Task: structure prediction
Amino acid sequence: MRLRAIVAACAATFMVAGCGTSTPTKTEPAAGTTHLTVVDPWVKAAAKSEMTGAFATLKNESSKAVHIVSASSDIAMMTELHEVVTGADGAMVMQPKENGFTVEPNGSLVLEPGSFHIMFMQLHQDLRPGDQVKITLTFEDTSTQEVTALVKPFTGADEKYNKKKKKKKM
Amino acid sequence: MTPSIGRRHLVTGAAALGGLAVGAGAHELATRSGAAESNQAIDFHGPRQAGVQTPPQLYASLVGLDLHAVTRDALTRLMRLLSDDAARLTQGAPALADTEPEMALAPGRLTVTFGFGPRVARLLGLDLPEMPAFKTDALQDRWRGTDLLLQIGCDDPTTLSHAQRVLLKDADPLARLVWVQRGFRDAAGASGLSMRNLMGQVDGTVNPRTPEEFDALVWSGNTTQVVVRRIEIRFDTWDRVDRRGREFTIGRTLSTGAPLTGKDEFDTPDFAATDAAGFPVIDPASHMRRARGDAKGAQFLRRGFNYDDPGDGAGLLFVAFAQDLRRQFVPSQQRIAELDLLNRWVSTIGSAHYLVPSGARPNDWVGHDELD
Result:
């Protein structure tokens, strides 16, 4: 885990330096700008056309709040930023998080099952255990950051989106 | 002032004033007694996998898995998942999506060593010799060879159990569990002798010990081969053998582990020595004489564990690592199968062998070199 964080931090330094030399303008925000250190990203395995979630710890090592407005990936028709709240009937339900995710200055936001997560709907393909998934985070200033997440088999936190179908071997 | 009050004051004062010193002393003591060392983390990443040259842990779980599909794709995904788990757990960190993260915090010298069985070796075009049949074997299908071996070793049985559970959960979509063989050893270095098997004999006397010996006998570049054999002991009849008979069978003195011609475990046996009546002191059919390979380069690493499963027998999980099983292990086992006094009381009921691929670089997975 520590190694990963270090590698991510190194990548961040490199990318920032790279961006500096290419002098990005406001109208043309640099792709791949690193706003956050993304630690331990993973995605729950799921079958084609189903839904699933991505989880990670987002660390903001800067002195300014970082605001993620959306996420996207080639793997799904739709990608949303979700939160899990207690519904009117007392059951936990998930819903899109209005205004996206904010990571406080020198703070972190944990995306985990049963809480904040990145939601993929209508998967274009099977996400099989051990696969790797690329996710693009888009920030308030329209700049982006790419994350590679490992697909893990996971039966915990069986929230509403995955209840109908039985787990199948992939 | 009564003596009792005086003493109490003295004790309280010492505790209050000396708190820091007492703490430091306790830490030193723990280090000296090995308690702190037992919770060390063993590096996972490196050119060679851990769990081979690593001094054996107190407990081991050997896990045999068969891939649902023997394909490069399935193997890649499985090794990516399991390497990621092992890299974290061995360092005392929870696995990704660990449902019991608190169980991972005491590494206890945890190592996870991966082996590729014959079908995987064929898939990847790796050299893994066929294992010949030995005439004394009484192999049971339940302990047969598998596509993958996970050798999980740990000084802490709770940490080991958690690691095994995490690895099996992640393996489940891609592989089927064939067997788990659990074993244990005496505390490392407790006696200064090699480990004792359940017959009370020292085991592993002629093991490689120096890095040079490991390079010459165990490693082939950064890979090695391993054979796992489940050797059951028939205690009912062994119990009828007296101490002299037991020592004669093995060729060693039980208390010291020394050859019957020597004083120390590591003394070189004198196979030519005869007693007053002219009979050899070490019987030519004794286990030591038959197992021992005298040729240069014939020795290998024995890194076994005892097993004692209620209702399911007791014996030795014979785990041997060698540069080339064909050159080193097979001749020794053939001599034993041909003739060995010990055969009356032991039989091999399981056998599996594997290629141990090279280790993983940081952020990479075990087997990547072999799969490329």
Q: What stands out?
A: The first helix of chain B runs from residue 3 to 17. The interface with chain A takes residues 45, 68, 76-81, 84, 87-88, 91, 93, 96-97, 99, 169-170, 172-174, 362-363 of chain B (CB under 8 Å). Residues 206 and 299 of chain B are 7 Å apart (CA to CA). DSSP finds eleven helices and eleven strands in chain B.
